[in-house]
Amino acid sequence: MLDQYATTLTFIALGAIFAYSFYAVLIAGQLSLGQAGFASLAAFSGASLAPSGADVGEVPALLIAVVIGMSVGALAAVVLGLPTMHLRGVFLAIATLGFAEAVRVVLLNQEWTGGAQGLGVPRVLTVGMAWMALALVAYWFWRMGRSRYGRALEAIREDELAARSMGIDVGRHRLAAFVTAGAVAGLYGVLYAYYVRLIAPGDFDFTAAVEGLVTAVVGGSTMFLGPLLGSGFQTIVPEVQRAVGVEAGWIRPFLAGLLLLVVILFLPGGLASLIPRRTRMPSGADDDTAGLAGRRHPAAGEPVVTLAGLGKEYGGVHAVRGVDLEIRAGEVVGLIGPNGAGKTTLVNMISGLVPPSTGSATVLGTAIGSTPVHRIAAAGVSRTFQHSKLFNRLSALENVLVGAHLVSRPTFLRRLLWLPSARRDERAALRQAARCLERVGLTSLAATRAEALSYGDQRRLEIARALASDPSLLILDEPAAGMNHVEAAQLSQLIRSLAQDGLTILFIEHNVGMVLQTCSRVVVLNFGEVIASGAPEAIAADPAVIEAYLGSADDDVDGGLLAEGTRADATPAEDAPPDAVLNLRPGDAGSLDTPDTSPREAT
Question: The domain at 303-380+471-601 falls in which architecture?
Answer without folding.
Answer: 3-Layer(aba) Sandwich (3.40)
